[in-house]
Protein 1
Amino acid sequence: MKTIFEKSVPGRQALSLPECDVPLYQLSPELLREKPLRFPEVAEIDLVRHYTALSKRAYGVDDGFYPLGSCTMKYNPKLNEEAANLPGFTGIHPLQEQKTLQGALKLMYTLGAKLAEITGMDQITLQPAAGAHGEYTALQLIRAYHLDHGNPQRNKIIVPDSAHGTNPASAAMNDYITVNIPSGPDGCVDLEALKAAVGEDTAALMLTNPNTVGIFDKNIRQIAQIVHDAGGLLYYDGANLNPIMGLIRPGDMGYDVVHLNLHKTFSTPHGGGGPGSGPVGCKAALAPYLPGPIVTEKDGVYSLTPGGDKSIGTVKTFYGNFLVMIKALAYIETLGAEGIRLAAQLAALNANYMMARLKGHFPAYSSDICMHEFVISCEKLKEEVGITALDFAKALIDRGIHPPTIYFPLIVHEALMFEPTETESKQTLDQACDTILELLREAKADPAAFKQHPVKMPIGRPDEVTAARKPILVYTPASS
C-alpha cells in the first residue's frame, strides 16, 4: 500500500477555501521556514479512500476475539461513547468559570468517589493521563511522603520478577533503584526473598495482585506487614483489578496507594495510542501530597481546589482526559455494584474455562485456579518441532484471532498469555479453543508450512531483527 505522500500530485487539493476577508498577518522573516513544509497534495476522494483502506487493515475488539493478556481489551459499550459525545461535555473549555462547569465537576467528583469506594482508598486524583503516568504520579507521592518524614535514604523500590515492565521504568524515572525479587514456586512473592530485600532504604514494593501470571497472592496481608514493618509503602499496580473489583479492595489488603487503568478496567477505548486515563488513589497519610487541583464539594457547589503546601504539583495540563472519565463513569453507573461484581466473576470464569480446555495440550504455568488471565507455554512445542510462541501468534492472525501476549511474563519461556475478558461468550471461547487446538495439530504435522504464517494478510513475516536494529522512524520522500 502506498503512503499518502506517494499518492501526492503537485497542485491537487482536497478543499477549496474562500478568499480571506480580513488583512493577512505578516510574520517576522526570522520566524518563517526557509522551505515550505512538504504536505501531501491529494483530492478529497483520494484522501477518503486512503484512510478508509487503512482503517480496514486495523483490528480491534469490535472485529473479533482479542485476548491480549494483561491489557484487558474488553468490549466498549457504545452508550459510553454517546455519553462522552454530548455537547454539554464536548462544548466546554477548562478555562471557563467554575460556576459554569458544575456538571463536569460533579461528574469528576462522583467518579473519584466511586473509584475510592471500589479501591478502598481515601482520596483520588483523576489527573494522570494513562497507567504509566499514574505509576509515575504514585511514586512521586511515595517520594514526597518519605522526604516529608525525614527519610531521604529510602531510595529503593522492590519489584517482583513477574511485574509489568512499566514498574521498573517508573521507578527509574523517579530516581529510585529497582530491587528485583524472585517469585516462589507458586508464582507468588517469595516471602523469604522479600524479607531479605526490605530495610531502611526501602521506599515501596510495587505489586500487582492478581499478578501477571493470573494468580491472586494469598499472602498479601503478610506481604503488606513485612513492607510496613520495614517502614516502606505498598503500591498497587491496578492493571489487573478486573477480576477482583467489587469483591475485594486493595485498600483492605494493606495497600497505601493505587493507580487504575480506566482503559482496562472501566471499559474506555484501549489501544491506538490513547487517550487513556490513570487515576491514582491513596490512603489519608498520602493525601496531602496529591497533585492539585482536587475536585471538592461544599454545600452542593463543586470546585477545583488548589493542592496544599505538600502537593507534588500538577501532573497534567488542566485536569486529565475528561472525555475518558465520562465513559468510565457511564460504565460504572450502568453496571452498578452488582454488575461490577458480576463482571469480575465472569472475567475469572472465562479465563478458567479457556485454561481448562488448553492446559492439557500446552504446559500451563500453574494448574491452580487462575483469575482473569492465564499463561501457557510453547516451550515443549519448540523442543519437539521447532514452533515458537511467535510462530503460533502469527498463525492465529490468519484465523482471524488477535494473538495473545507472547514472551511475557519473562519468567515463563515461550509464553502465551490469554485474557479473554468478561464480555466474551462461551461460544466465542469454544471457537477460539477449537482453533488453537487445530493449529497445534497443524504445527506438529507440518512445522515448515506452519512457520510461513501469516499468509492471508497484506504483510507476511517482516524482518523484525532489522526493523529493531535499523528502524526507519521518519518518511523521506524519494525526491528529497
Protein 2
Amino acid sequence: MKNILLVDDDKEVSQSLANLFDEDQYRFDFLEDGCEVATFLDGHSGVDVVMLDVNLPTLSGLDVLKQIKQLGREIPVIMISGFVSTENAIEAMREGAFEYLTKPFEINKLIDTVNKACGNNLAEKTAEQEVRPPGLLIPHGVDEIVGKSPEIVEIAKLIGQVAKTDAAVLIFGESGTGKELVARAIHRNSRRRNNPFLSVNCAALPESLLESELFGHEKGAFTGAYYKRIGKFEQTDSGTLFLDEIGDMSMLTQSKLLRVLQDKRFERVGGNETLKADVRIVAATNKSLVQAMKDGAFRVDLFYRLKVVSIYIPPLRERRGDIPLLVDHFCDHFAQQLSLADRTISKKAMQQLIKHPWPGNVRELENNVHTAMVMSKGDQLQPEDFPSLVDESPRVELDLSTLQEDYTDTFRKIVDPIMPKLIANSSGQIYHFLESALEKSVIASCLRQFNGNQVKTSETLGISRNTLRDRIAKYGLY
C-alpha cells in the first residue's frame, strides 16, 4: 500500500484525482493549505509521494516544496498547477520536484507519474550521494521565455533540471526559435549565475578568428596580432559559454574544444602556456549534427561530449497557440522601450499572425510587432500595421529565367497593392520606411540562406563586413 499526501484547496479536484487510483494499492490523505504540510509530515513517516498544488491559500506550493526539502525527507513531490507558468515549472524542477503537471491532466500520464514516483522513492538514496544545501539557488525571472504550449512547459522543466548541474547541454532548433534565451535561462538558474555568461556565434567568424575568439592569442601570433588577446574561455571562467551554430565549427577547432571539455586545459594561439578554465558549455545548432557526423564534418566524440542533455525547441508554426502570448509580451516590451502608449491588437490582425508560417520563427514575429508598434496610428494594431504580411494571398510569381537587371516591374507588383494603405497611414516617411524594409528583407533573407554566415553574406551582397555588421545591429538581425 502506497501512501500519498494530496495538497489542494479544491476538495472536488482532490477527490476526483484519488478516485483514479486503485484503493487497494493507494491510500490518500488530503490537506487544503500548504502551512499544514510540515506538521503532517512530522507525524507521518510513511508518506511515499506528495502531490502538491502550486497555488495554495496561505503558503505557495513552491514554498512548501522548499520546506519539504529542508526537512531532509527525500519524498518525491509532484507539483500540479492549473495555471501554465514557465517560471514556476523551472523553479519547481530546479528545487527538486519529481514532476510538474498541468491541469487538465492526461489521466494516463498522471497515473504513470505517480507509479514511477512510488517505485523510485528518493529516500533510498545512499549517503554518498550529494544533497544540495537548501537555499543554494534562488528564483530568477524568465520573462523572455513566453508560452503555455506543452512543448514550452517541457522545455521549462528541462531547464529547471539541468540548471542544478554543470552538465553540457545541446540545444536544437531552427534559427529564431530562441535557443540563446534557453541558454541564458539555464545560466540564470544555475550555481554559476553570478559569474559571466558569454556567447559566440561559430558561423559568424572564419576559422582563424574563431580560434582566437575562443582561446585568445599571444602578441605576434599571426599577422595583425599587435597585442595579447584574452579569449572567451578565460573571460568566462566559472561561468557559462554559449556556442551558437556549433555545426559550423571547423574540425581543427572542434579538436581543441574537445580537449577543453575533457580536461579544462588549453593554450592561446601562438602561446606555450597551458591555461585552465572551469566553463560550462551550452551549445546550439540549427543543423543536423547526425548528418554532419555521417559527412565527416563533425566529430562523433565531441557530439557526445556536448549532448549530455539535449533540448529541442520546436518552430513557431508548430506551437501557434503561443503566438497571442508572444504578441502581448512584445507589445508591452516595445511600448516601454519606445515610450509609446499601450496598444492592443485587433482580432483580425491576430488571426493573420496566427495563420502566418513564420519561417523566421519568434525573431520574425518580434520584428513584425516592433514595426507595427512604430507604424500604428491608433491604440489597436490592425492588419495594415504589419506591411510584410498584409498581402500574402496574391503572391508575386517570378520567372527567374526571364528576370532582367531592372527589377522595377517586379517590385511594383509587390508595392502597388499595399500603397493605398501605406498612404492612409503615412506621416511622410513612406520612402524611408520602404527603403529600410527592402534592405532589411534582403539582408535577412541572405543571412538565412547562409545560416548566419556573415562572410558569405557580405561577399554575396557585395558589401563590406563592417557595413553588414552595422545593418545587422540596426535591424536587430542577430
Protein 3
Amino acid sequence: MKKSLLLASLALATSLSAAPISFDFKDPKGVNAIQFQLDSLLEPIVGTASGVSGVVSFDPAAPATTTGKIVVTADSLKVPNATMTGHLVSEAWIDAAKNPEISFELVKLDNVKTSGTTTTADATGKFTLKGVTKEVSLPVKLTYLADALEKRTKPGNKGDLLVVRGEFTIRRGDFGIQPGKNEDKVSTDIKLSIAIVGSAPKA
C-alpha cells in the first residue's frame, strides 16, 4: 500500500513538473520590440518594430518541446526618418495595409542545451513577411525566470517570465521587397535582432 502511494505521488509530481507554461508576449509595459538593420553602402539604416505579440509554450523540464508563434504588426515598423518610415510601410515596400502581420512560427529546436535558467538551441521556423513564407534557422537563447513577474512589473503580480533572444538575416528580394533595386542605399540583407519578454501570470 505504501509503495503504491509512493509511486502515485512520484507520478503526480512528474506530471506537474512536466506541464508546459504558456507565455504571453504582448508586453503590458510596451517595451518589447524587434530591431532590424540594413547596412548598405551609402545609408546604414536601423529601425524597430514595436507591435509584438504571440504565445510561446515552454516546459522548464523539457525545453526541446517548446512551441509558439511571435507576431509583429507591420505598421509598427519605424526608422528615425519619418519619410523613410512612410516608404517602408508603403505598397512599394512591405505593404503593411495588405499584409498587416509579420510572423515567426517555431517548427523545432535542435542541439538543445540547458545550464541553470538558460537554454540555448538552434531554432527552425516559418518566417512570413509581405505574404511570403520561408523557412529560417537561427541560434536562440531562452531564459526562464520563475516567480520574476513582480520584479518586472509590481509587487503582488505573481508569475514567471521567459526571455527570448536571437538573431537572423533575410534577403529582402526573397520576400518581394524591391528585389535588385536601390542596393547602394538599401541593403539586400536585413538583419533581425530579437530580445523580448513573455509573461505567465499565476492566480
Protein 4
Amino acid sequence: MPTSEAVEQLYALASARPPLTEPADVAEVYATLYDLALDRTDLVTVTAREVGELIGFGYGHPWRWAEQADEWSRELAEELGDEAAGLEDSFAVQLLAVHPSFVRRGLGFELLKQLMVASGAGVHWLVVSDVDSPARRLYRRMGYRPLGRGPEAPNGEPGLVLVHG
C-alpha cells in the first residue's frame, strides 16, 4: 500500500487543475483520512505505478452506520434522509485519483473496476463535487447514479452522493 505522503502528492496533482482546482490542503485532508483508514482490517486498495511512481490509487471500505460516529457521517445521514438506509452494508469508495498525465487513458476505469470487484459488495457509493469533471463522467459511464446531496465538497458546495448497484 502506498504511504499517505504518496497519496497526498498524487491527489494534489490530480485535483489542482480545472475543473476541480482544489488547494493543496484538501490533498492533505484526504491523506490524513487515508492514514486513519490504514488501521482498518477491511480496507481495500488498488494502485497503479509507472517506473515505481504512484500514478493511480483508490481505496474504500465496507460501510456500516453503527461504526460511523464522526460529524461528516452524521451530516451525510441527515442530508440523505431515508435514502441513507440504502448505504448500510455497502462499500464506500473513499478516494480515486489518477495522475493528470494518465487521465483519459482508461486508468481510472480500470482502478475503479478493480476496487469494486475486490470489495465483493453489491452496492458501491461515493461523494463527488457536483461539477462536470473526468471523474464524474467516469462514474456516470460505469453506471453510478445520483442518490442525493451529501456534506460540503471541497468547492464549498454540497457534495453529490452517487451509488452503483
